[in-house]
């Protein structure tokens, strides 16, 4: 029986120049908005925080100090 990765959240290890799957899936969830991000569209993440972001703006906002958000 084949297992489908459709509509399943992947778990990834984020590295400076890419990511490595820890568990299979077809998308991740934005750490800020909860929006589903297809793996082939994932462009923004934090290596330090190990979390993905849907857009560059969300990524930049997530990296601001707490008092500047």
Task: Summarize it.
The chain is mainly β and 69 residues long.
Characterization of the model:
InterPro entries: DUF2093 (IPR018661). This is DUF2093 domain-containing protein. The protein has 69 residues and is mainly β. It contains one helix and six strands. A hairpin with a 6-residue loop joins strand 3 and strand 4. The longest helix is centred in the C-terminal third of the chain and has 7 residues, at 56-62. It is globular. The relative contact order is 0.19.
Structural class by sheet pairing and helices: mainly beta
Question: What's the alpha carbon Rg, rounded to whole Å?
Answer: 13 Å
Secondary structure tally: strands: 6
Which regions are unreliable across 5 or more consecutive residues at pLDDT < 50? none
Features of this protein?
single chain, about 70 residues, mainly beta, 1 helix, 6 strands, globular
Describe the secondary-structure layout.
Layout: E1 11-15, E2 18-23, E3 27-29, E4 36-38, E5 44-46, E6 51-53, H1 56-62
Antiparallel strand pairs: 1-2, 3-4, 5-6
């Amino acid at each position: 029986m084949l297992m489908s990765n459709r509509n399943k959240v992947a778990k990834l290890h984020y590295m400076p120049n890419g990511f490595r799957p820890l568990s299979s899936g077809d998308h991740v969830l934005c750490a800020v908005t909860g929006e589903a991000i297809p793996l082939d569209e994932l462009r923004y993440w934090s290596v330090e925080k190990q979390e993905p972001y849907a857009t560059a703006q969300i990524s930049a906002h997530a990296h601001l100090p707490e008092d500047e958000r």
